[in-house]
Amino acid sequence: MNVTEILRGLIAAAVMLSACSGKDDPNATATSTSKGGTGTTGDTQGTTTTGSTGVTMSGTRSTSASSSSTAPTDTTDPSETACDFLSCDSDPGDMEECDMLAQDCPEGEKCMPWADGGGSSWNATKCSPIDPDPKQPGEACVVEGSPVSGVDNCAKASMCWDVDPENEGVCIAFCEGTSVEDATCDPGFSCTLNADLSLILCLPDCDPLAQDCPGDELCIPADEKWNWTCVLDASGEAGVYGDPCEAPNACDRGLYCLAPEYVEGCEGVGCCSPFCDTSKANTCPGDTQECIPWYEEGMAPPGRENIGICGTPQ
Q1: How many CA atoms lie within 13 A of 25 on its CB side?
Q2: CA-wise closest residue to 245 among 219, 271, 221
């Protein structure tokens, strides 16, 4: 049994749980339809998922050590839960003032995600003024008010991401396209979309075995196609092997949140376990764990054939 079979059912549940977990605040999360090239680039925040995978995204930069991860193992239908990858602390409702892909705001304004109701998660869109001297993707930026205010000095179709306590971050581009289905990013980035399109971000691709994301960001799965992207660390003081987890990025860098049956002694909805290289000797920490291939045989993209996850075979 490979990891695709192991995780297919439990990642969907994690998508819902992840929005309520974060290092500095209860953070937002996002789903994603990833389309883009391969490679690692940029300095970004938080992450992503669609369909069967999920990752939490935060309005503020992590202040602790690195972390990584994925989702717990509940079988709850995500459609029946109150929070999604975008918001756990406010009523989702109908709060779209503008279209993130279309950027249909009046001249001099841009469509931006923000936290309607004063929460810490992006749960709506609105038209915000474009700065007279806008910063381009990849450049340093600042936000006004809270990190989820929806007001910054980035150019149109981009936002200030990975915001620190001084409200400084880096501009990151939005996906481009006429619809969710054809949304794309530049090579080296994956398009990450949340359920109601309050976030449509081009997040950098990465290698989970190398954990080659900038700063203390984590490399975890981005979508149901098993693309990999860099996300913010939301592990706090926890996140080592065997620690309980309820969010895709709630484990330390190099680990992932698995269903309890795959981690010895796990008593949470999920517990952290490391990625591993299937071409090397078994180094998994659990006595009953093996390095389970991430991809089905013959389905791994070039260069990803050796990605595995430490789990107890079922």
Answers
A1: 24
A2: 271
pTM over 0.70: no
Buried b (16+ CB within 10 A) or exposed e, 230-252: bbbbbbbebbebbbbbbbbbbbb
122 in any annotated domain: no
| Residue keyed to tokens 């202040």 | 63
Amino acid code (one letter) for 246 = E
Domain range for 248 is: 1-88+156-314
DSSP 277-302: ETTS----SSTT-EEEESSPTT-SPT
Each residue's pLDDT tens digit, 43-94: 222 222 222 223 334 444 433 222 333 322 332 332 333 222 223 333 444 5
Whether 48 is covered by a domain: the verdict is: yes
Question: Residue 77 falls within a domain, yes or no?
Answer: yes
How many domains does the structure of the chain reveal?
A: 1
Rounded Cα–Cα distance for residues 257 and 248 (Å): 6
